[in-house]
Design a protein that fits this description.
Structural class: mainly alpha
Helix content: 55-70%
Largest sheet: none
Mean pLDDT: 80
Strand content: under 5%
Low-confidence stretches: none
Order of helices and strands: H
Radius of gyration: 25 Å
Shape: elongated
Oligomer: single chain
Number of domains: 1
Length: 75
C-alpha cells in the first residue's frame, strides 16, 4: 500500500494506535506521580482540617462554607 491509498478510516486507526501506545508507555510515570503525591495530599488534608478545627473552637470564628471540609451540622 502506498500513502495515496490510505483511507481516512485507516489513518484514524493508525492515529488511535499511536495514542494507545503512547499512553501505555506513559502509564507507569503517571502512576509514579500519583504515588509520590499521595503523602503530600494527605498531610495537606490533615493540616487543613486542623486549621479549621482551631479557628472554629479557639477563635470562635465561623469558617466560610466554601472552605469547610466537614459537613456543617445545625447546632
Amino acid at each position: 500500500m502506498t500513502n495515496a491509498n490510505i483511507t481516512r478510516t485507516e489513518a484514524l486507526a493508525n492515529e488511535n494506535t499511536a495514542k494507545n501506545v503512547a499512553l501505555f508507555l506513559a502509564a507507569p510515570f503517571i502512576g509514579l506521580v500519583y504515588a509520590v503525591s499521595f503523602p503530600f495530599v494527605g498531610i495537606a488534608m490533615i493540616v487543613w482540617t486542623a486549621v479549621e478545627a482551631l479557628t472554629a473552637t479557639v477563635a470562635k470564628i465561623e469558617v466560610p462554607a466554601l472552605a469547610r471540609v466537614t459537613p456543617a451540622y445545625a447546632a
